[in-house]
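Entry for iron/sulfur cluster complex. Fields follow.
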Amino acid sequence: MNAPKTLYDKIWDAHVVDQADDGTCILYIDRHLVHEVTSPQAFEGLRLSGREVRAPKQTLAVPDHNVPTDEGRAEKIEDINSRIQVEALEKNAQDFGIEYYPVDDIRQGIVHIIGPEQGWTQPGMTIVCGDSHTATHGAFGALAHGIGTSEVEHVLATQTLIQKKSLNMKVEVKGELGVGVTAKDVTLSIIGETGTAGGSGHVIEYTGDAIQNLTMEGRMTVCNMAIEGGARAGLVAPDDKTFNYVKGRPHAPKAAAFETACAYWKTLKSDPGANFDKVVTLLASSIAPVVTWGTSPEDVLPITGEVPSPSDFEGPKSDAVERSLDYMGLRPGTRLEDIEVDTVFIGSCTNGRIEDLREVAEIMQGRKVKPGMRAMIVPGSGLVRLQAEEEGIAEQLVAAGFEWRMAGCSMCLGMNPDQLSPGERCASTSNRNFEGRQGRGGRTHLLSPAMAAAAAVTGRLTDVRHLM
Amino acid sequence: MDKFTSLTGIAAPMPLVNIDTDMIIPKQFLKTIKRTGLGVSLFHEMRYDPDGKERADFVLNQIAYRTAEIIVAGDNFGCGSSREHAPWALLDFGIRCVISTSFADIFYNNCFKNGILPVTLPKEQVDQLMRHAAKGANARLTIDLEKQMVTSPDGENMNFDIDPFKKRCLLEGLDDVALTLEKEAEITAFETRHQLAMPWL
Ligand code: SF4
């Protein structure tokens, strides 16, 4: 009998082209997503060495990181450097025969939102992109991770990557989530538990009933932040929810091919007794709606808590906390619920899907954004935006005082004009609260869409359960 | 890619933990279609005040460290975004080696593609090198990749582990793509098998 395998082992084994004696492998890549910021140098490298894209049909390109989110962008992107990058991507896609969604295409959006949306992301695949949040696609039971630009070039030229296998880690979330607790709270709480380096060298498989009970959108939110926990990738074993989500999408297998694929996809789970090098277990009932207070995603606490003091930590972390409290303009002992915000950002590949917008709409029912606040919603894709408009969510949220933007990464990283000014404080559904991430001197508190909506209503970090 | 064999140079101490790639090179500098020219923007927000003047207290602005080729850093260096602009900026500034207790995965890989050697050492040794680095320009470290050894200014040797394949690529300055394309026949054979096994792909 074969030794029991984890889900990661199975996907890995199915993609090894060649293995050297020291364990270095050439790993085959099924799907490659490309965006404008991390690819120009890779295409330039191809041209300089006279190479072609090996598998253009397995490659999909879209501009998302630096595109403005106003409606005028289809005519002209004002920022010259952004425009050059977007034009370069378009030209590279044309020259090398790659499917491309321009900014005025309804399918345009954040790479990690449109992959699943187009059925491009499927269980059992290997998927890469020059972006660390490629881990998102792991929600389908696909091995998906970010790569650097040299590796982008490597994949374009060879459709493979040189890799060594990571270790297996299991994160189990047991039981049922409480009222007001969402996938975002789960993933942030896991990072709070393991730290940002806790998953280093590992691929995480998320299991347990709390994970299984999440929707596909929720699982994407969880896997999205595997990278913030230091892991190479996150995985959730595919099940009927996964298959139903994929079925019927433009790039999904059709008819009989779907059935064949499904039969294989059903084998994609860790065998009983498979070995995990590291196991972390959380009780769903112990997870509360959370927010971050510092400048690392591990700086997370239940909203009912207080800003900690540097003396609560040891060694270099204590210095880092001192620095981050100074940057964040916060004093130890302040109740998190007393922290006032002036900006609310709802969007990103973590929380820019339709379910996230519905979550916001539900909290905003009969409520308004507090006057004077800047509250923006940036749907993750043109199709998410359209669906929200069709469901009446857009109209409701605009009436409540939100700005309704075009799709893109936007204030998640502030490469486009959507940025915080120095000292501005933002309740954000994105995934990184690093210094300057959303704009130089800007202060970011990460939280769920429901919690972001609550903050929009009150103008401060707020326990969403008070509004339910 | 330039080879990396050995290096003796000034080491700048950066004891902060979790130095992320947004700190190493902020997003406004990612709007480039080139790999070069990023050195002046390295650590931009720590290095310059909002008017663009150098901050005297930032390590790389101090006379002793302006020509540093090595950084000794706190835990989990290079976490966050996958941007290869981070190693490009380090390289463009002149940094060829970073020493820490741990590195984020993607950053670690990216270094090797650009001729930068990331060295992982246990905490006590990193702390010791940090103390040496803090002494300024006379405290030069030597890194010998062939021997996998860091030598401190007082002559102490510290061995480090490194993946043999990555070591060879750095020592010889090899281009991975060309190496992989030597296996072209295997890749084609794999594609045929894979297509048969998963015809829906
Ligand atoms: S939304 Fe943010 S995290 Fe996601 S791909 Fe865009 S910039 Fe990266």
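NOTE: Residues A 64-65, 110, 112, 131, 133, 348-349, 409, 412-413, 430-431 surround iron/sulfur cluster (CB under 6 Å).
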